[in-house]
Amino acid sequence: MTYLLALDQGTSSSRSIVFDRDGHVVAMAQREFRQIYPQPGWVEHDPRDLWTTQLETAREALAKAGLKASDIRAVGITNQRETTLLWNRRTGAPVYNAIVWQDRRAEAACAELRERGLSDTVQQKTGLRIDAYFSGTKLQWMLDNVPGARAQAERGELAFGTVDSWLIWQLTGGARHVTDFSNASRTMLFNVHSQRWDDELLALLNIPPSVMPEALPSSAHFGDIQAAWLGAPLAIGGVAGDQQSALFGQACFSAGMAKNTYGTGCFMLMHTGERFQTSQNGLITTAAAPPVGAHQPFAGPPQERLHPPGGPGEARVGGKPLYALEGSVFIGGAVVQWLRDGLRAIESSSEVQALAESVPDAGGVVLVPAFTGLGAPYWQADARGSINGLTRGTTMAHIARAALESIAFQSAALLDAMSRDAIAAGGVPVSELRVDGGACVNDLLMQFQADLLGIPVVRPAVIETTALGAAYLAGLYSGVYAGLDELSKQWRAERTFHPTLSRERAAEKMAQWEHAVRQTTAP
Questions:
Q1: Which of 16, 270, 339, 438 has its CA 20 to 30 A from that of 309?
Q2: What torsion do the CA atoms of 140, 141, 145, 147 make, to the nearest 10 degrees?
Q3: For helices 334-341 and 396-424, what crossing angle results, to 10°?
Q4: What is the pLDDT of residues 475-495, one digit of tens each?
Q5: Distance, CA of 35 to CA of 141 (rounded, Å)
Q6: What three-state secondary structure class fits 204?
Q7: pLDDT digit string (tens) for 270-293?
Q8: Rounded to 5 degrees, what angle do the CA atoms 431, 439, 81 make?
């Protein structure tokens, strides 16, 4: 039997999953870690927590599977994307906490860039809007505000990376400072056309090029895990940011296919193939995870077990950039965590469906969870959450139902924007939505989502598609899979939710949502 190990470093927890060749979960381990909120709008992680919990879960998953590291063909890594780290190249010690993708401290710097008329330049080069969500201005903040950081960076002593780079650095003992194209495309510093760090953008943010990692295709040799960590050396053969990895794990390989991941946030991606399309409806363009690219593999010492003959660098599956349109909801499943930890309405997240189902509807309550601003398609950085439509008859069950519905409302707004962009480009609207992530197991939420969208919502048999995508990329690198056709045939649906609400009633509900958003964002 052939096995692949996926390391899935997320916003609230680290997970490791062992998959067999058929994409079945063999064993899984997960550990939550501390969230740090130094002041309103700031969100941080301790980089050491990310590393230690990830390593611990990898060891635990192997133990649960009854496997040794030598039984694993290759390792894939997927990660929370825009979260930004900076560390000392000599000691490996972080110079500051990781600044999480949700963090808004760099908004002032972004506003200055927008005021300078740079929005079009950034969007044409990177596909992104100028926003504090992305890594570039987070890195700029570190260099400007951590004592001594800029001077050290100028001397070539510091390394920047998203979480994948940080984990690879640790796993390889500092031998490799690399990232993949999909993570690089989320920094606001990467030209997605040339697939290179952009000198003009680095200069705009006053970032020394020496801190940047090498960018590779998503299926490539990213380095070898030191034997001391898991018991044997292992090749890291696949890396992708979590949402591009989920798109890949959902077998959305063709233009027009779309998926939505219901995690801490919600992230909807529609594959656009080789077409770089600038959204006219508040979405961003991002690099999709190609199996391989034109980049030459790392020319390290030959190790036949890690680098099978005829494998990486020889059989290319195209070298052109691939793209996707993306919409990001900042607060998705996190609204359930807020019900649990903030309002203390439930003791565990699994209780929310039963509480929401105890009432027939939300009773006119609309909750807009703009706890860290509103993402696509609204892009209202200063918005804050609101609960509209409260009456004397409102109960916690109504609020819980409105909280779940807010996830679907935000996702429906994304799909509507995506469909408008697709039609404008001469394509057709999305005809089905593949879903994954922890909250997609909630049947009430998935049915409401289908009702709002008016198209089937399809939940796969393996909902761990983020980790599965990383495993697939590593499997392609190591020769476990021959190509994309083989992976497409492995994708299986577990349940399809068909819309039951009339289009008129769905439109009324969306109108209520948009009214609540306007109230939330009004000056």
A1: 16
A2: -50
A3: 160
A4: 999 989 988 888 999 999 999
A5: 20
A6: helix
A7: 988 888 888 888 888 998 887 654
A8: 85
